[in-house]
């Protein structure tokens, strides 16, 4: 089944369609990575598979011709096009530093570091829907599962910053020192392995706030021990930053871990101070009337009210929440409660006829879910960021992403320490 299509010019100047049959194959990723890096030495890491990919395409398009390696080489040069004119978020023309984007999601790290004139030279993400969004906005197909040695083999040398919003897992460290070997079988091990092999100047890791106390603090202690003792990086005490202090009205606390290679002589680092605490919900709400599909049914509203009442009777504060226009949203997360704890009142609806199957009628109180675009804004994504997936996937993607302004403020501090100008 065909999963991907890319329109490009062939050697005769005609437009034809590349049909990618295997979306997780490394060749399509290598092809787009090559196109993005054809002006720098990084392209050598992707050229072999990029050539093989082009050769396959030309053989399909011109079955009557014998496509030699030389023909594929010449064709690849013709296939290089100006990506900066075809994607919403192109790399800077004259980048000041290079970085890689692991567990990339939909590109929150990439957006932030490109804003600071950085060039992304490698991306990996396993989720197929996130890959679609990433490609639509950056013109690049991420490589797949970073735990695979083949995926790691495409990572180039000599990049400056490693970025990773890796998932948190417990380590089996009972009775041991909590070092590099004790992280095997976890996703952090793969990050550490890449750091050990590639020795970037700086590392920038992001995780949930709960990492600090995960497994009674053993998980974070192991991570810091590996980075400091095994990998020889200067790692100041990690810090929890809140997105609401960096220009978006979302109460989202995340732990940031920054490190610098010891031979650089960096012995101090200050995380960014809050830059903007003034944003409120009204700043990110849709300007026009939104679809009736975002409005809750009367039955659902009553279910939420009953649910909260049951918890309140037990002394719990758990339940749905309507955020006032001058307030701050709760953290956007995956799952239904991420939306139910971020409901809004919007009385602009004029057509109450349901367009989805609901139980009951559309409520007349004006209670609705936020739209995916509003979630994007809560995470600091600009309005021209393309949302090309279903609402369900979009909520998941933005809930899993990072708050771009907080990432960018921290990355700015890293760049200053590296004296990148």
UniProtKB/TrEMBL annotation:
Enzyme class label: transferase
Q: Which residues form the active site?
A: 168
The UniProt record lists the keyword S-adenosyl-L-methionine: yes
Alphabetical list of PROSITE patterns matching this protein:
C5_MTASE_1, SAM_MT_C5
One Gene Ontology term from the biological process aspect of the record = DNA restriction-modification system
Give any GO molecular function from the UniProt entry: DNA (cytosine-5-)-methyltransferase activity
Identify the SUPFAM superfamilies for this entry. S-adenosyl-L-methionine-dependent methyltransferases
Put simply, this protein is called Cytosine-specific methyltransferase
Protein EC: 2.1.1.37
Similarity annotation = Belongs to the class I-like SAM-binding methyltransferase superfamily. C5-methyltransferase family.
**What reaction(s) does this enzyme catalyze?**
a 2'-deoxycytidine in DNA + S-adenosyl-L-methionine = a 5-methyl-2'-deoxycytidine in DNA + S-adenosyl-L-homocysteine + H(+)
Pfam families tied to this protein: DNA_methylase
Q: Does the keyword Transcription regulation apply?
A: no
Keywords attached to this Swiss-Prot or TrEMBL record, sorted alphabetically, are: Methyltransferase, Restriction system, S-adenosyl-L-methionine, Transferase
